[in-house]
Amino acid sequence: MQALFPNGSPLNLQILSGVLNAAGHEVKIADLHGLPPGNRELFRAIDSFKPDIIGFSNSEIANASAVIKAAAGIKKKYPGVKLLAGGQTPTFMPELFLGPEGPFDAVALYEAEATICGIVEALASGKSLSGAPGAAWRGTGGRVERSAPERSCADLDKLPFPYWEGTLRKGTFSPGLAASMETSRGCPYRCVFCSIPGFYGATPRYKSASRIMEELRHLKSKGVTEVYFIDDSFATRPEITRELFNSMISEKLGLRFLVQVRADVLSANPDLAGLGARAGLFMAVVGFEGYTAAVQREARKGNSAGINREASKLLRRHGVAVYGTHVFGGPESGLRDNLTTFAEGRRNSDLFRMTIFTPLPGSRLYSDLAGAGGLGSNDPSDFYEGKYLIKGSHNPTLVSFCYFALQALHYALPDTIFKAVAHPNKIIRTFHRRAYYGSARFVLGSALTLLKGGRRKP
Q1: Looking at the domain covering 168-412, what would its CATH class be?
Q2: Are the C-beta atoms of residues 82 and 123 closer than 8 Å to each other?
Q3: DSSP symbol at 402
Q4: Which residue among 78, 312, 315, 419 is least crowded, i.e. fewest CB within 10 A of its CB?
């Protein structure tokens, strides 16, 4: 997510900390994303606050190994501290965190606003977690046990404000601070590789425009000038989005913001791009996925090449940078499909991103493949964008080779270099420079790992 939200604040932790703070618990957020396990800054934060319980948020499976390693280091140094994990990966794969090698005492399953206080109080008192809904723990014989489920927070307007204290970073594209924010949860669409409906549910829940404006005003009073709306499908109820944009315009809120939005939502609501730009929208992340029938069919997203082009045209017409995301190497697509996606995607995006078609835990594709023995690996460290994990369709080595070859070509082409060096739009220029920096780190890290005789971890 750092590629999409470079200076975003840790919203999952902020939301749960807001709930705990409102219930009378003392909380502190250590925003240490990207730091190595055992980092001194992490231990300094623990020593200064002296917590009874430390909670980790882990949504991306490729980061699970680092989270578990960091937690193991904490458990060794502070054996009396209880450790709690939450997020998508712990929910769908609790055995990783609670198994024989897992250092965690409990996992909070799914959305935890309604359950976090009960889980924390049970851990602090030493009581059984069986009476705390929405929890998982290591039971007799090392088996993972679960309490009664509590899947979702129904009314997002009734949640306390997130706990923002000490967690807001400097904005990248504006003079003030940056913050992450959500306007909805859940998704009515069923993209085959996506885990969002499995985690949040297939029936979306929305904040009202008035509640969103309350949060934006509060953030502005804290010096925030840049907001990342992290909804996986922003504006799936367009009437709320129109009301929000019009309120931001009429109040002259002056915030710049970024969204993730579907191409078909933009195409069906062509006024949203212009309204958004007037309200402060500076970039839209759009999941185009591909430009051939084969890619669209296997993604099951409902897009088309025409819809993709129309969405990009609408955004660019109003000066909104288009961050296009695409998939490579799906089981039904061949070389021609992937080359078409590469060529069309680059033309249709100001910032082009392509990742290998990967089944994420909690998605329909993952469930189908895991049930049929169709996964090449279940190691969390293999679930990064450079490894092909689907058995029985393509040669995994060939897919990875072709993928990295196209990535190298993309970064070697003159237009990509120009965007990083001299593009007049600072947003496009900055994101490309970050991409080059990230690619260089990945290549150097892979080379060092090979020299040491190990395997590359993302």
Answers
A1: alpha beta
A2: yes
A3: H
A4: 78
pLDDT score, position 2: 47
Q: Do residues 195 and 365 lie in contact, with contact meaning Cβ atoms separated by under 8 Å? A: no
Q: How far apart are CA 202 and CA 55, in angstroms?
A: 27
pLDDT tens column, 207-256: 999 999 999 999 999 999 999 999 988 999 999 999 999 999 999 999 99
Phi, psi of 176 (to 5 degrees): -100, -145
What gap in Å lies between CA 53 and CA 44, rounded to an integer?
Answer: 16
DSSP, collapsed to helix, strand or coil, labels residue 17 as helix
Are 311 and 263 in contact by the 8 Å Cβ rule? The answer is yes
Other C-beta atoms lying within 10 Å of the C-beta of residue 319: 12
**Short-list 396, 366, 386, 368, CA closest to 378:** 366
Q: What number does CATH give the domain 11-146?
A: 3.40.50.280
pTM (predicted TM-score): 0.90
In single-letter form, the type of residue at position 251 comes to: E
CA atoms within 13 A on the CB side of 62: 13
Q: What is the DSSP letter of 287?
A: E
Phi-psi region of 452 (alpha: psi -120 to 50; beta: other; left: phi over 0): alpha
Structure tokens, 149: 């489920």
Of 302, 251, 301, 299, nearest to 278 by C-alpha is: 251
- Cα 343 from chain centroid (whole Å): 26
Token representation of residue 135: 């929890």
Structure token pair of residue 93: 């794969």
Q: Who contacts 252 (Cβ-Cβ below 8 Å, separation ≥6)?
A: none
From residue 312, how far is each of 252, 306, 351 by CA, in Å? 26, 10, 11
Closest CA to 123 of 146, 107, 145: 107
Q: 312-319 — which CB contacts under 8 Å span 24+ positions?
A: 312/263, 312/286, 312/288, 312/348, 312/349, 314/266, 314/267, 314/270, 314/273, 314/274, 315/266, 315/273, 315/284, 315/286, 316/350, 317/273, 317/274, 318/273, 318/274, 318/276, 318/277, 319/277
Residue 119 has pLDDT above 90, yes or no: yes
Q: Which residue has the tokens 């900055």?
A: 430
State which H helix or E strand residue 225 sits in: strand 224-229
CA distance 407 to 417: 13
List the domain boundaries for the chain. 11-146, 168-412
Residue for token pair 């892979």: 446
Angular region, 128: left φ>0, alpha ψ -120 to 50, beta rest = beta
